[in-house]
Structure formats: C-alpha cells, structure tokens
Amino acid sequence: MRIDKFLKVSRLIKRRTVAKDVSDQGRVWINGRDAKASTHVKVGDELSIQFGQKKVTIRVEVLSESTRKEDAAQMYTLLKEEAFQSE
C-alpha cells in the first residue's frame, strides 16, 4: 500500500492530497529513510511523521484498503511522540 493512502485510511492525515504533500516535502520517513508519496509500506514498518512542532513515530500493524473510523487506530501502534521547542 502506498504511504499516502495508508496515512489517509489510518486517519493520521485526513486527506490523501495532504498526505501526498507532506510526504513529498520530506516530512515522512519509513524505517529511517525518506519516503515519497508513492513509497510502499508494509506491516512492521516504522513510520515517523513531522506535524508542525511535533514528530510522531508509529509501527504499522494492519494494512486495509478502507476502514471504519472506530477501527482506524488499530492499524498502527504509537511508539513515540516528540515535541520540538521553538526558540
């Protein structure tokens, strides 16, 4: 599954176009490597996503083409959440 679609289906990012833009800006990493929107993700991969002043690291648990809102959080496990300090 493409990373932009995973981010949308898992509801980490609400829109696929936004997920694509974030990926193409170099704010998403898979297993420590830069990920473009077309990069494929698989179960067990660690994703790091930079949202403004924080960085979230998750592990992919389930890949699904679509999911209900209530089940979206089961697609990943939150490993770490870091806040950046502004100077």
UniProtKB/TrEMBL annotation:
Entry keyword set: Protein biosynthesis, RNA-binding, rRNA-binding, tRNA-binding
Protein's UniProt keywords contain Signal: no
Keyword Chaperone appears in the UniProt entry: no
Transmembrane domains' residue ranges: none
Domain RNA-binding S4: 1-62
Pfam families from the UniProt entry: S4
InterPro entries given in the database record: RqcP, S4_RNA-bd, S4_RNA-bd_sf
Protein family (similarity comment): Belongs to the RqcP family.
Main function: Key component of the ribosome quality control system (RQC), a ribosome-associated complex that mediates the extraction of incompletely synthesized nascent chains from stalled ribosomes and their subsequent degradation. RqcH recruits Ala-charged tRNA, and with RqcP directs the elongation of stalled nascent chains on 50S ribosomal subunits, leading to non-templated C-terminal alanine extensions (Ala tail). The Ala tail promotes nascent chain degradation. RqcP is associated with the translocation-like movement of the peptidyl-tRNA from the A-site into the P-site.
Subunit structure: Associates with stalled 50S ribosomal subunits. Binds to RqcH, 23S rRNA and the P-site tRNA. Does not require RqcH for association with 50S subunits.
Name this protein carries in UniProt: RQC P-site tRNA stabilizing factor
Lineage, top ranks: Bacteria, Bacillati, Bacillota, Bacilli, Bacillales
Gene that encodes it: rqcP
